[in-house]
Amino acid sequence: MPCATAEPGDEAGAPGPVAPQLPPVAAVAPAAGPVPVPVASTDDAGAPAVTACSAFANALDSASTFYGDFADSIEGVERPDYGDPTISTTNTSGRTALREAAASALNAAGTPGLSPDIANPMRSWSFGATKLLLKMGLRSGGQSLNDTATQLNNDATNAQMACAAAGTHA
User: Fold this and answer.
1) In the chain, where the domains are located
2) Which of 9, 11, 57, 99 shows its CA 20 to 30 Å from the CA of 165?
3) Which letter, b or e, does each residue of 21-59 get, where b requires 16 or more Cβ atoms within 10 Å of its Cβ?
């Protein structure tokens, strides 16, 4: 096997690698501009209502189930005993469901192309749900919770009626 050596003062050394010969660059036509891409769209003005009302309906279902459990646990009591394990557990799950439902309702209200006639009661419901979960977290009394829940139900009815007027349901 050959061995490469260099002597001090020997400047010549072995020649390095040689760059390969590349073919000449040919003129290339400029790249074409952006290519149009089809976008999913619909001419159906009711499509935003269907999307938003469906999301709102899901929010209502979740909130009503878990808040209903809490309401049942404090039924008929003006000052609920939040130290009671059942009330404490249903309070926590009810607040969590209301928080998630309020966010979902607010997102539904922001659906692009959604009529304000539908979006506004959804926003109002979202605000009311937030108000109710705060009262639950602050361990409010029964009548205060009932008054807020009644307003929340009115907002839900208004949103459902607006969805029905648009030909869909919530």
Assistant:
1) 47-165
2) 99
3) eeeeeeeeeeeeeeeeeeeeeeeeeeebbbbbbbbbbeb
CB atoms within 10 A of CB 86: 13
Residues 134 and 126: their CA atoms lie apart, in Å, by: 12
Q: In terms of pTM, does the model score above 0.85?
A: no
d(CA 53, CA 55): 5
Which residue from 164, 57, 51, 163 is spatially nearest to 110, judged by alpha carbons?
Answer: 51
How far apart are the C-alpha atoms of 63 and 129, rounded to whole Å? 9
Q: Report which residue type is found at 167.
A: G
CA distance 66 to 133: 12
Q: Provide the token pair at 104.
A: 């979902």
Q: How far apart are CA 99 and CA 105, in angstroms?
A: 10
Asked whether 78 and 141 are in contact (CB, 8 A), the reply is yes
pLDDT tens readout for residues 89-136 = 999 999 999 999 999 999 999 999 999 999 999 999 999 999 999 999
